[in-house]
Amino acid sequence: MLDLLIRNALIADGNGSPLYKGEIAVKDGKIYDIAPSIFEDAAEVFDANGHVVSPGFIDAHGHSDFTLFVNNRGESKVRQGITTEVTGNCGFTAGPISKEHEDDLVHYLANTIVLSDEQRKEWKWKSQDEFLRYSAKDGLSFNIVPLVGHGMIHVGVMGFDDRMPTSEELKKMKELLKNELDAGFFGMSMAFEYEPGNYMRTEEAVEMCKLLREYGCIYTIHMKNEGMDLIPCVKHAIEIARLSGCRVEISHLKARYIANWGKTKEAIELIENARKEGIDVGFDVYPYAAYGSGLIDLIPPWVKKDGPRIMCERLNDKELRKQALYDMEHGLPGWDSIMKGEGWDECVQIAKLKTDKNRQCEGMLISQIAKMRGCTSYEAVVDLMVEEDASIKCIWFAMNEDELISIMKHPDSLFGTDGRACATYGELSEGAVHPRYYGTYPRIVGHYVREKGILSLEEAIRKATSAVAKHFGIEKRGEIKKGYYADLVIFDPETIAETNSFAAPHSYPAGIDAVIVNGKIVIKHGEHTDTLPGEILRKKRM
Question: For the segment 330-347, what is each residue's pLDDT rounded down to a tens digit?
Fold first, then answer.
């Protein structure tokens, strides 16, 4: 007997082929048969009513490892059709935490996760694998493809020192990386934008990537600069791939700030030329003209170069604070800041804060906060950074939609959320989060495919499924094919849509009939079934 039979389906196979009518049989977590009609008995029959059945979406760039330990149901991700997520991006992961640099590591994470003082004391994960096993101990709604943060490994061995690691330090870093790879991790990530990434030597990255190459794994790169120096940074990513022979993914490709709009055309040409040379470089994108990052981005480089803790100490010093405010207003050579443009404080919105005393600022623009406090916008930024111990997440309205569409349409771009799983209830319903946390894939299909027609539905699905699986080396997922895992999403192409906004982000999408993970129905007619069949996927050694 079959476990599940899906009838009356309009099947998108994930490879970009035309949609076709058929039925899908599921048994033992895998696709057992695909045919115009299937006559075997099944424990459960789901009528797709002529709606699209596609492979479950594979999020090429997610951060749900920082929320699944709070709520393992992963509501905002699975409800938009995500059945697998690549986690551990941008150099930030919960582990490994070393005793020697425990304080540095917890402060390093301040740019990506708001930890309470109590959580900081207990944050002692010896490896990222240990942390993920803890997060998944009671099950998951979707699968995760784990990466480990290069930033965590670097800071854990040598803190925030601005230098090349010694041979002994590099050996320790490789040992920490090897530990995660031996556990089946798919690769490593790095954010060159944030300390210590922005002064990390290329030689270190290349040496670490050589180990990744031995395992057939990937290196994902959040570039040092996505604005003024976008082109040199793309060249830097390509150079790492060339020198190491490692597969590289450029995360969330964009050109931020008006002065830099249009630069992604040259960036993509560089990537195309590298691929023609046999260098394996890819890139991903999310469907919004606003990005998310920490408020720390507005602090001058010299103030934050030794990490968030020292930064706050400097901002508390009267003379250093005065100099920092001057540099924020007048700029520094080589520092690409949104504050160069007029009305910058109307383009940065507070998303998430650490303390309750400033909770009213969540969802407000910097200009509004400054007006409320009776100070300049620069002072508002500095004061908030100190008051919140540098733990402030923001949304930045700094991209061009026409350029975004060009990136989305490119045949080699992959789709991702750059977001984490949230929920409309509990702790994860707090804060003015980026709407991509809930609406990325419904926005792609509903807004950009159905309404704007920038891509065919089949091509959009390919870029969200099989293309991601192939680039990251995720086996037997991303396609509707016999013997593949039954990770599926069923949706109405006429009604699928995001229902949230920047003003009201916590809202699940419309038009998703069902989400099936490893052969089990997790979402059925808009409701979570309380089934948690998701797994931590493990990469097989080459």
Answer: 999 989 899 987 899 999
